[in-house]
Amino acid sequence: MTTKTSARWSDRFELGTDPIPVDALTNPEYFALEREKMFRRVWLNVGRAEDLAKPGSYFVKDLDVLRTSLLVARGSDGVIRAFHNVCPHRGNRLVYACSGSAKGLACNFHGWTFDLEGKLVHVPDEGSFSDLRKAERGLVPVATEVWRGFIFINLDCQPKESLPEYLAEIGQDLAEFPFESMELMVTYVMDVKTNWKVFLDAFQEGYHVPYVHKTSLPEGFRGVDVSAMMHLPAVGIYKRHRWFCAPGNPALAPTPTEEEILKHDVRYTLGTAVPPEHQPKGVNRDRVPFWSFDGNVLFPNFFLGTAAGWYWTYHYWPLAVDRTICEARFYAEKPKTAAARVAHEYAKCLFRDAIREDMVRLEGAQQMLGAGVLKEIMLSDEEVMLRHNYRVVEDYVRS
Amino acid sequence: MSITSLPKPFRDLEKFVPEWALATEVERGDKRRGSSMEVLADFYNAVLPRFGEIMSHLNGAPAEGMPAEERRLMDLGLTFVEMSFAVERFGQPDVPDAIEAYRLGTVEGTSHVLPKALQKSGA
After folding, report:
1. B49 contact A CB<8A
2. Looking at residue A15, what is its pLDDT?
């Protein structure tokens, strides 16, 4: 039972009501522990399988937080694998391109060549090496699993949990959402001087909505009572992951442009309530009335927003305690007509303008948290998802 | 025939094509932020009464590989959508009180792989 009652979320999820120490957001030593004890030991999403369409397709993902560059490839056997992007000969970065398709990858230092399953297949002047056993000098593998087209990696050599075990309930919740019928429209990349949790926190509560989105969506996300604060009608807290349900306004008046848009493939834009018959599978777990979208946070840094006809993702990749790169991606149902492309553009641009509003506070918050004036920050019951995140991160850091 | 022509029923909008039929999101965003509200309102007021017809016409064109005239009409429609936010929601060209537009690296299309310039976390 996760729908809103008179009981406070923090009581129901046993998360307490204490203030949160600012240290977790500003202390470089805390960040170093997050990096070593958490990011290097959990499953992280690094791409989608459609980017590796054929055997031989590969892409490279540089992840500063893991202090490595990853090579992610589909082998000739069709299996997706990830490796550290390093040549085992003298440690050169193996692939400098961002992506490509090949039968083999040759190091540009001395020409050691690997197949896309990671095996060392060719060493120039091999006879000059003493005791070189090629079978032992393949690419260094990284644990890799794919869930619903999302490619996850884990730097733990022997992960304590498989990906399905790690995702657990949230993976099951999303099992039927139609990811496959949608395609990526756009990626926005932002390099922001803020802690990764400050960034994530801006997207896991509705308390900010009446203030931050007062111009773009003055009456969106309010359920039936537009004068009210945006209280979350349902929240789910799992061991590490969490989700919330965002309410929508069923009486949200479309703009003149939107009126035409809504006749062409896009039925619901940001902030609108979607009637039950138009809700896709895998959303609105508690069947709340006036559902708008679900925000799913796959711990630690992957936000997955699931809506009717579209979904979006945020990946928060820390560079330092006070610097984060966010990749935001917007997906929509594959358009069949030119009109559908225009309609999706409308939904996408509204999303983009709204997230630009979300991001404006992040650097100011980090600057002043870093001033050291505050020792702790306050969270309301509507910010219970943040509270859960601080708890789970703390558990990893202290482990 | 002019190389900038639109499908026949929309020839009256021809004068907007050179400046407003823009093929990429970045170009359309730059045009929005680089225009005064008067200029944006003129374009908006001219296209809005035809927007329903534009969408109906585009509903008969495929999403990819459409004829050049339909492509131009679609680009004009995409630009209209971008400009509508300035007129209908914000009352000014850009989003007020938001992170600067230039700070969003924008990669249109279906690939998740970021171009090198945006892979700042690199080794």
Report:
1. no
2. 94
pLDDT at A228: 72
pTM for this one? 0.95
Q: In this predicted model, what pLDDT tens digit does every residue of A180-216 receive, in sequence order? A: 999 999 999 999 999 999 999 999 998 888 888 888 8
- Residue-wise pLDDT tens digits, A350-378: 999 999 999 988 999 999 999 999 999 99
Question: DSSP string covering A96-129, please?
Answer: -SSEEE-SEEE-TTT--EEETTS-EEE-TTGGGS
Q: Where are the beta strands (DSSP E) in chain A?
A: 20-21, 44-48, 57-63, 68-74, 80-84, 99-101, 104-106, 113-115, 120-122, 141-147, 150-154, 182-192, 234-237, 242-247, 291-298, 302-306, 310-320, 323-333, 376-377
Which residues from A are below 8 Å from B48, CB to CB?
256-257
Check A257 against B98: CB less than 8 A apart: no
Interchain CB contact of B122 with A (< 8 Å): yes
The shortest C-alpha distance from B45 to chain A (Å) reads 11
- Closest residue of chain A to B58, computed from CA coordinates: A339
Q: Does A229 touch chain B (CB under 8 A)?
A: no
Cα distance from A20 to chain B (closest Cα, Å)? 26
Count the helices and strands in chain A (H runs, E runs). 10, 19
Helix (H, G, I), strand (E, B) or coil at A202: coil
Taking the CA atoms of residue B4, residue B8, residue B11 and residue B12 in that order, the dihedral angle to the nearest 10 degrees is -170
What is the rounded average pLDDT for all residues in chain A?
94
Q: Name the pLDDT band for A1 (thresholds 50, 70, 90).
A: very low
**For A291-340, what is each residue's pLDDT tens digit?**
999 999 999 999 999 999 999 999 999 999 999 999 999 999 999 999 99
Question: Which residue type does A41 have?
Answer: R
**Order of strands across the sheet that contains A113-115:** A104-106, A113-115, A120-122
Output the CA angle A345-A346-A352, nearest 5 degrees. 85
B89 contacts on A by Cβ (under 8 Å) = 215-216, 255, 353
Selected residues 6-35 of chain A with any CB under 8 Å from a CB in chain B: none
